[in-house]
Amino acid sequence: MTEVHLRTAEPSDLLALLALEETCFSPADGKLTKRAFKYHLQHPRNQLVIAYNDQQLVLGYVLVLVKKDAWRLYSLAVHANYRKQGIAKLLLMHIIKNASEKHVNYLTLEVRESNQTAIALYQSLGFRCKTRLPDYYIDASGLRMQLSLKP
């Protein structure tokens, strides 16, 4: 297994993030654009964290929109060649730890209703389904999930 490291994304990561986005998502998923990534890279409040290996290859990322007491997991991607190695879980655990340390009440996310692999991962970390979202995606329904971090 590849050794994985985490760090806050930097502007120099833009091309790697765009390439990853292109391989992980279809247009129906609402891919992040170059403009969107640039915004999030420059927005000090949001968290854009990358997972990378010893060769500095970007393996995955997580983007969280930060509000005072509720954070929204906006996007999570792991390169297909590196899936099933715990990278998504590592990224999520990092965000959950950060949120807990900042006394955030809860994390929310939306996921395709058909994405059982992602749903199982989220549930294993304590997320619970809150609402079904009919036609949330261009071609599918979604689920809103939430993780309560209140003591």
Please explain how this structure is put together:
29% of the residues lie in helices and 32% in strands. It is of the alpha+beta class. The protein has one domain (5-148): 3-Layer(aba) Sandwich (Aminopeptidase). A seven-stranded mixed sheet has the order 1-2-3-4-5-7-6. β2 and β3 (58-66) form a beta hairpin. The longest helix is centred in the middle third of the chain and has 15 residues, at 87-101. The chain is globular and about 40 Å long. The mean pLDDT is 91. It catalyses: N-terminal L-alanyl-[ribosomal protein bS18] + acetyl-CoA = N-terminal N(alpha)-acetyl-L-alanyl-[ribosomal protein bS18] + CoA + H(+). Keywords: Acyltransferase, Cytoplasm, Transferase. Residues 4-150 form the N-acetyltransferase domain. InterPro entries: AcTrfase_RimI/Ard1, Acyl_CoA_acyltransferase, GNAT_dom, YpeA/RimI_acetyltransf.
**Main sheet properties:** 7 strands, mixed
> H/E element string?
EHHEEEHEHEE
Q: Structural class from helices and strands?
A: alpha+beta
CATH architecture: 3-Layer(aba) Sandwich
- What is the count of DSSP helices, taking H or I runs of 4+ residues? 4
- How many structural domains does the protein architecture include? 1
